[in-house]
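User: Here's a chain of 583 residues. Predict its fold as tokens.
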Amino acid sequence: MTHNGNGLLEYIPGSHTLLIQKNSSLPLEGFAENIRGSIHEYAENSKSDVEKGNNFLQWVLTRVFEATEDDAADAIVDGANDLGIDAYLPVDFSDNTIRLFQSKYGTSHSLEAIAKFKEDAKRLFAKDVTKMRPELAQLVTKIKEKNLKIKCCYVTDQKVEYEDELVEIIDEEKIIQKLWDRIKKPAAGKKSSIKLERMLRHENTILGILKLRELTEFVSKSRDYVFESNIRQWMQFKTTVNKGLRETLQSNPSKFFFYNNGITIVVSDFTELGENLIELHAPQIVNGAQTSNSILDHAKRTKNMEGSMTVTIIKANDEQEQNNITKYRNSQNSVRGKDLVSLMDFHKSIKSQLRNCGYFYEIQAGSFDTKSKSKQCEYEGDLIYNNYLPDNHKKVIVAKDAIQSLVAGIEQRPTEAYSSPAQFLPRGSKYDDIFNDNLKDDYRLLLYPYLVKEFAKKSLKYGKQGGHKTKRYATLFFVAVYFRIIHKKILESKGDYKGDIRKLEPIFRSFKLNSRILKITDIVVTKFLEDTVVDDEIELANTKHNFFSQHVWNDTMLRVIDKKIRQEDDEISALKKLANSLF
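Assistant: Prediction complete.
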């Protein structure tokens, strides 16, 4: 049987971004695990098998098909005398196609259920509407009155080896793939127009001259998605290049054309509308994010937006070709370890996973502030994890802060994290140490050290606001000691600290228990700081800043730390027993 690759998605309002493009890459492992966990948690939070099925269907409609919570609730018609239809979309009959859904969660899935769904859908219109439930009667009536096309969609959390030209099968693997394609290709289905002053067409490419005012308007309208493929937006924005851009824009905009390399926009397609007006399909600025943001920033400060620049528009519908263009057009700024494309995928995966927990992962400084207040309010965090955070926390986790905490805690390198966190960011000298093939895309590797750091500042008076003369420098040291206690004493692990991250979830979800572990960590750190050997080392370092940035994790100090940990063995053993009961 032939298989419709787009299926229902090409007809569902708001879900066009889910269309799978050619050669889609496989989702990263951590992303896939997180989606499975989210489905399971959402569905299992119910009192009956029927409620589990409805919860699963609600999850699919809102996450995969992007229905609102209210529309999803209205769409579900599952229940007595449902005629084999669990839900339908859209609920407002806004186009000429209706999607009929059948969902099967857990063991309720079977090939027989798919066959029955097909037959139920075929027989639906032979039924007497006067004997139907009101919502189904309205549905069938509208279908007949408006002569709507019917699309059938069977969704399940199981793996399905089955294809059918009449029913689109969306199993667990396809759910994960669709969501992965969405975060990798946020511009899919988007269209935006741009007017060029002059242009030259060459095969699948347009070379053009673009007024800065036109670029400003284009970026302003499409900023939510147009930069997603460009990791350089996060790579040291405050550079001399940007200073030069700003100076040229302010003092000599007519020279901007000659001093700047221009931008590259990759599209899935483009349409020439006449008079140099180009409609761009799924546009992504893959080279020139710094230039574009500098121009946009300048435009906010002045109405005098004179000047022009070059633009290259390349049609590349194939994912691998898009990746190559992104990689090679950014080759002047080398990215090591995970290459440019895999680094983008890693952080997009982390961003998606943290969004699933209610947090905004801010890769580019200020990107949260550009969102509307209503969009910002969507990030509410997690009820348990929020306990670790200050009451006024915006539920924004800044990437560089999370990476700094990861280096201090998981990597056990608090001095380097304290003295020079930029080393571990893209283009940093020690970036390879962290972002390599051993780093899995697991949001907990970034979230948990960050929560420990924030709790230390909020509840234990670490950091500048705490007022303690020494602990103000010791926040990242505290994070390192906490993970040392967890790794060596609570879990008694022998390998890499990263291998413990899954085991830590029940501990972090048990705030009462973890608070005790955090407080015993504070006791250890306090006693360490009061030790005369440490006093001598601080004196040799001249300043507390020098001590925590260079000396606090040397062999001598580690022996003192471990000694202070051993002094709390009784309490730590009790905490270990409580932790073991959670596993």
